[in-house]
Amino acid sequence: MSQTGSLTSWQIFFLMIQTQVGFGILRLPNILQNTSKGDGWLSVLVAGVFLQLFLLIIWLLLRRFPDLIYSEITTFLLGKHIGTLVNIITYVYFMVTASFVLLQFTSIIKEHLLVTTPYWVIGMLMMLTCTYLAIGDIRIIARFFGIISILFLILMGLSFFSFLLPVDLHHILPLGKSGVKDVIRGSKDCLLAILGFEVILFLYPLASKKGTKFLRTITWANVFVTGLTTYFVILCIMVFSEPSLRHIKYPVIYFLRPLHFQMVDRLDLLFVSIWIVPLAASIVIYLYLGSKSLSFFKGKSSKLVLMNSTLVFILFTIVKKDPESQQLYSSYVEYLSYTVVFAIPCMLLLFSYLLKKRGKEVSQ
User: Fold this and answer.
1) 144 pLDDT exceeds 80?
2) What is the mean pLDDT of the chain?
3) Run of H or E residues at 17
4) CATH no. for residue 89?
5) N or C: which end of the chain has fewer CB atoms below 10 A?
6) What are phi and psi of 265, to 5 degrees?
7) How far apart are CA 348 and CA 274, in angstroms?
């Protein structure tokens, strides 16, 4: 990877939020109607707290091996063979998740913008763009993510127009009406919607500021993503009634559709066009991380990125585009994410304490 200390705290912050903010937020208010309903925004806050605990666990693991990337930590703790197997599972997770994001991306674009364009054309154009950026150095990717983060301000500005519509605060009142059990159940769906924080597993050795300063950076990134997600969930709950949210697949897009102005029409299409960039950013970072998760690969990383892009596109073309197939594919991604993102880092941290191993034992 790049030289140690080449990423600033701001760049790590932007890398994390751009990876987390993807298609999951667009559909989250609809999904939460099956569990916490009007208390969906409380589920988001609970998920943010849970996520912070996992970030702490990951930080404790990375702090013990400050000069090793994640794929090197696994082989150091688990041995060459088991560690390589874990790295392959992690690689599969990145590829499957990238193809799932691409699948959701093409579905959104075809439904709202390019109705008559074939799925494979939209997917191929997206992959060509993402591959070009993923081949670059992580510092270039981080700078690009920092520049496009200004789009969040534009998205927030567009969302303010929704207050011109009738909004009902009673849709989120009384607080806690769904019960603690349903709020916690809803937090599970929220965790899956804001996945992407696993990017920090490969960033710690490159951080210019490690230790508690690194923890502070990823904490503020978590606060930002949790706050942004909570805002959009509350907004959709107030704009739409509960029965409406159950039938609207992407409420975060549709809440702007009723607005019409003399010079600007269909703000929802403008909103979708801007949201394309965070979706692309998620694919870019997954392609890049996939190339770094296979530590045994000795060739140029650019070749591995090209291989990753081809594999992602093949998976994308294989999966059927009907809702049932997409739901089944989503379940596979969900179970794989529990293993790779949550279970394996916890297991590695436990082994590092039991085996009393630290990064300083590795000869550099």
Assistant:
1) yes
2) 84
3) helix 9-20
4) 1.20.1740.10
5) C
6) -125, 155
7) 38
